[in-house]
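Q: What residues go here?
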């Protein structure tokens, strides 16, 4: 398998290096053939080529089975015009690779359970994925804008979905649920919005193709409450762009730290894996970034792109064991923990991988 590596800016290169060490280790253990190719993106690409992503890098991504990205952006490039900023590189890659679904897993590790803002008994066992439609919906619908009519200003946005746009993301979610605990929650606002009625119809029609998956429909307002009341009861949640934007951040906070969260953006052919956090310029180069979000992104890659559940489980178990022993980067440190930097945390996780395999 070929993985295109885009280290990016700020702490991107530091956390990607950690994730690659773990990826190489698990590939070696399971005899997986791994080829790494390196591309350049974001501020690094602007400095070298004057644009946030080059055709060369896009080609590399398209010739790979998966892309692993660190993060892009930083104060050095903040004053550039919007279309030349580092973040444009990410938007371009998502568009070129047609990545229409965003996967945001949230797993509460036993070793870090006290970091959650929710009560331990509520969050224990939480292991869910929010699947958000990424390329359509109200953020892209036309007409949009601010208009003046009879001297009064109006702001307009349009929530829009074609049946096909709904179907393809819903299928991603059903397939994911089939590989997990076989439960799908579809979130909409079908009591008010026509676009949600269509969403619900499509989900119901797809049920025929995934008979082993249990389906529940929730209105978005109810779902936002249930996520706090009973997060551990969810498996896969699928929803449109704007609802997913909000619910994935709400779900993310349950785990207790931004540095712990992985993500994937997937399409029919390509998939890109990255931590949820940004380039964290305030701590870049200090060797203290939490690498776990990127390491768990590699676990997600093993599961989603390569269908290899045991490798995913091994990585997650190694992370959990390391946390249980009290090792913490500063962002998740509490008094009494063992404070470590990025490299030491990575070494501890690698040692746990070894130990879990060799006993
Ligand atoms: P951020 O996620 O980079 O940082 C927010 C806070 O969380 C900071 O205090 C940071 O130190 C901390 N943090 C983040 N990740 C951490 C980690 N792994 N370990 C320890 N601490 C961590 O968000 P921001 O400060 O709003 O943005 C900084 C830059 O990143 C901006 O240029 C922004 O545009 C960019 N950004 C990029 C992406 C991406 O590449 N996908 C996403 C978000 C923001």
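A:
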């Amino acid at each position: 398998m070929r993985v295109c590596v885009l280290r990016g800016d700020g702490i991107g290169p530091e956390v990607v290096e950690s994730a690659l060490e773990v990826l190489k280790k698990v590939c070696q253990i399971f005899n997986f053939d791994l080829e790494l190719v390196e591309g350049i993106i974001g501020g690094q690409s602007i400095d070298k080529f004057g644009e946030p992503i080059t055709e060369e890098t896009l080609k590399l991504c398209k010739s790979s089975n998966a892309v692993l990205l660190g993060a892009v952006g930083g104060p050095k490039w903040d004053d550039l015009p919007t279309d030349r900023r580092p973040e444009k590189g990410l938007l371009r890659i998502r568009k070129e690779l047609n990545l229409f679904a965003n996967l945001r897993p949230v797993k509460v590790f036993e070793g870090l359970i006290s970091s959650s803002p929710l009560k331990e008994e509520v969050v224990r066992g939480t292991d869910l994925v929010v699947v958000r439609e990424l390329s359509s919906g109200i953020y892209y619908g036309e007409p949009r804008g601010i208009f003046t009519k009879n001297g009064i200003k109006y702001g307009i946005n349009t929530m829009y979905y074609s049946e096909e746009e709904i179907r393809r993301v819903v299928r991603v979610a059903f397939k994911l649920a089939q590989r997990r605990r076989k439960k799908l929650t579809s979130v909409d606002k079908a009591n008010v919005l026509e676009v949600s009625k269509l969403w619900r119809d499509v989900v119901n029609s797809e049920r025929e193709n995934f008979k082993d998956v249990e389906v529940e429909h929730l209105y978005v307002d109810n779902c936002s409450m249930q996520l706090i009341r009973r997060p551990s009861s969810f498996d896969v949640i699928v929803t449109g762009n704007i609802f997913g934007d909000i619910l994935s951040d709400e779900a993310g906070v349950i785990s207790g730290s931004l540095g712990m969260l992985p993500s994937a953006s997937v399409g029919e052919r390509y998939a890109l894996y990255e931590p949820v956090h940004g380039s964290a310029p305030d701590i870049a180069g200090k060797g203290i970034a939490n690498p776990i979000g990127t390491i768990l992104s590699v676990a997600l890659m093993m599961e989603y792109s390569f269908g290899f559940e045991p490798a995913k489980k091994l990585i997650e178990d190694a992370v959990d064991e390391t946390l249980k022993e009290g090792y913490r980067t500063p962002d998740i440190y509490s008094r009494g923990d063992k404070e470590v930097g990025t490299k030491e945390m990575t070494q501890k996780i690698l040692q746990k991988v070894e130990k879990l395999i060799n006993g």
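A: Context that may help when evaluating the design: The chain has a mean pLDDT of 96. Residues 11, 15, 71-74, 87, 90, 258-259, 274, 277-283, 289-290, 293, 331 surround nicotinamide-adenine-dinucleotide (CB under 6 Å).
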